Amino acid sequence: MDLFNILTIEKKFSAQLIHLFEKEYGGLFYKSLEFIQKDGPRVKKNIFLPSNLKIWSVEGAKKIYLIYPKIYCQCQDFLLNSIYRQKKFQMCKHLFAQKLSESLNQYTELKFKDNEFKEWKKQF
């Protein structure tokens, strides 16, 4: 079973699960945890209504990053390592943080009206 599936079921980290994540993902795991644990969840699920469009974002140190889960992050690390260098995990720390936070249900959910989308996307 996939580690994220286990995390989704258990909704918390056991010592064994932390060890398995560390073994599989190394430093990426710990870098991504910071977006969930340090200063509260900085992963946001933005929902636009009534269309029910869901767009994720991750608040970095200097910038907010747009996330398409399992597909794309607008950060430089994703561009360089996942696209150009085609590294093993195909995930930057922001994509990994989104996946962790969704598995743990530790994210902030924000709701907007569809007509607010144009103004909302200016932050990126």
Give me the strand/helix succession: HHHEEEEHHEH
Main β-sheet description: 5 strands, mixed
Oligomer: single chain
Unreliable spans are: none
Helix tally equals: 6
Find the structural class using helix and strand composition: alpha+beta
Helix percentage: 40-55%
What is the residue-averaged pLDDT? 89
Question: Radius of gyration from the CA trace?
Answer: 15 Å
The count of β-strands is 5
First-to-last CA distance: 36 Å
Strand adjacency order, main sheet = 4-3-2-1-5
Q: How many structural domains can be distinguished in the coordinates?
A: 1
Could you tell me the strand content as a percent range?
A: 15-25%
Q: Indicate the overall shape.
A: globular
Describe, in plain words, how this protein is organized in 3D.
This protein is of the alpha+beta class and 124 residues long. It has one domain. The protein has 6 helices and 5 strands. The protein has a 5-stranded mixed β-sheet. A hairpin with a 4-residue loop joins strand 2 and strand 3. Helix 3 packs across helix 5. It starts with a helix and ends with a helix.
State the main characteristics.
124 residues, alpha+beta, five-stranded mixed β-sheet, single chain, 5 strands
Short description, anyone?
With 124 residues, the chain is an alpha+beta fold. The chain contains six helices and five strands, in the order αααββββααβα.
SSE map:
Elements: H1 3-10, H2 15-25, H3 27-37, E1 43-49, E2 53-59, E3 64-68, E4 72-73, H4 76-84, H5 93-104, E5 108-113, H6 117-120
Parallel strand pairs: 1-5
Antiparallel strand pairs: 1-2, 2-3, 3-4
